[in-house]
Every structure is written in C-alpha cells, then in structure tokens.
Amino acid sequence: MQFYKWGDAVPEHALEEWRVFSDQIENADGLLPVVWLDDLLRQQLGELYARLPTHFSVAAFLFLIQRAEEEHSPFRNWEFRNLPKEERPDYRLGFAIGKAMALAGFQPQEHPDALLNRVLGFIGAGHFVRPWRDYGLTWSVLKWLQYLTQVTLKEEMGSIAGDLQAPVWDISYRYRFFIWIDSRTPFKISRLAVELCNEHGGDLLVELEDHPDKTAMQAEYDRNQANRLMDLIAEGKIDRFSLKEADETFQADEDSFWGPDCHERPPLPPAIALKR
C-alpha cells in the first residue's frame, strides 16, 4: 500500500513507521487483529467486498495503526482544548462510539495496547456511527476508512493511504509498505518492507545515486543524503523492497479496484499491460 504524508514529512518518518509496525507485528507474533477490519468490510460493503485487492484488509489495518499513532498525540486536538467537554468534537465522537458499542454488546470493547485500542474505536465508528451506507455514494472505500480515523472532515489529518489522486501540492512525502502474508494462516504477516519514494513515486534511493547530469554540488548533497538514510536503515535493520522488484518477482492479480482511468495508477507488469 502506498502512503502519503502531509506537512513537514521526511523519509525518516517512513523508517520510524516501519519500526512501529514491526514492533506491533512482533508483539502479536505476526497475527494482528485484522479480523476486526475484515469483518467490518464484509458487513458494510456486501458484494463489493469481493472487488477489494487481495489482502486489502491487512494493508488497511496497518494504515489504521499508523493513523492511531498519529491521533494518539496529545496535540492532535489542541484546537478544541478551550471548548466545554460536551462541545468538543473528539469527545462527542468518542462518546457516540462507546455508547453504541456498549448498547450493541460489541466485543471486544477495549484492548490493552493503546494503538490497537484506538483502532478498535475506528472499527466501532465504521459499524455504528459512520457506516458505509451513509458515504458510499460519494466516497471511495479508502476515503471512508480515512474518515473513520478523523475527528472532523478538516484536512489536517496526517497520513493518507493509497489515494492515487492525492493533491501533489499538499503532499510532502510518499512511501510504500510491502506485506508478505503467511500462506497457511490468514492475516498473519511474515515480512514487512518499505520503499522510500521521491515526489513522483519513484525509488528515492535510486534518484539519489550519482548521475553524470548532476552538478557537483547536487551530486554531493544527494550522496550525503543517501549515505545518511542507508546508515539509518542499517542501524534499524530495516527491510527494504521496491515496486520494481515486486513487478519482477510476483504476478499481479487482475485489477477490479482502482479502475483503468485512475490517475497515477501503479504501472502494471508488462505481461499484463500488453493484454489490455
């Protein structure tokens, strides 16, 4: 899944998020409670569920963890700090979700891990407060999932996942996560890798390589940046992969999700592209 970052994002953020994801995966022995999201998608989307990409629930669940980590910051709702509690949109949304989950007897109602507990709140919002039926005529599945993680519709919302038509002028950084699923256990993650991208979605580290057309000053700057990132990757034992490697290694499924006219749609492997 491709991720977009608003604001002052830098490549180091992607490396830090790989660490957050890896810690969560390791703590769960590879088996995160993806079933929460998968059940929500099956229930809410009905027949449309079958059109989702393979293992969509796993990738989207990692996105929910990422958004939970962002929303966990005490400064996220700082602008509401002077409002009475009953008027704060974050309090009102949280109260509505908690009340609906309690009345419906939804299980589980909480999780000891702070990030997963917040993800559980997102899932509750999708079931009871912001169901797909209220948004499906105007929003994509990804935009709906995004809204489940937001207090309001305001655009200051941290990361965006997979939105291939994200406005370039508002996006500071983009990167991809690649997820390997255990073939014997549904939803179990056996490997997680990251690709750092340039502003156009290409491999950042390839862009930073020496090139005869670069000026000496630009080449030195890019070389220093590449060395710094590679040092961080080595120190953190971060697993790297790329979209190019994926195209060369795996056979892509037929796409019925993005559609052929989607802007910036990931390029298909030549073997499939030639058949269309």
Structural features, described:
- It contains ten helices and four strands.
- It has 276 residues and is of the alpha+beta class.
- Strands 2-1-3-4 form a four-stranded antiparallel sheet, covered by helices on one side.
Largest sheet: 4 strands, antiparallel
Beta percentage is: 5-15%
Q: Tell me the series of helices and strands, N- to C-terminal.
A: EHHHHHHEEEHHHH
Rg measurement, Å: 20 Å
Mean pLDDT: 85
Instruction: Quickly give the structural class.
Output: alpha+beta
Biggest sheet strand line-up: 2-1-3-4
User: How many alpha or pi helices?
Assistant: 10
Secondary structure: helix percent: 40-55%
Q: Termini distance?
A: 23 Å
Counting DSSP E segments of at least 2 residues, the number of strands comes to: 4
What would the principal axes of the Cα set say about the shape? globular
Uncertain residue ranges: none
Helices and strands in order:
Blueprint: E1 2-6, H1 11-27, H2 35-45, H3 56-71, H4 89-104, H5 114-129, H6 141-148, E2 159-161, E3 171-181, E4 189-196, H7 204-207, H8 216-235, H9 243-249, H10 270-273
Helix pairs in contact: 2-3, 2-5, 3-5, 4-5
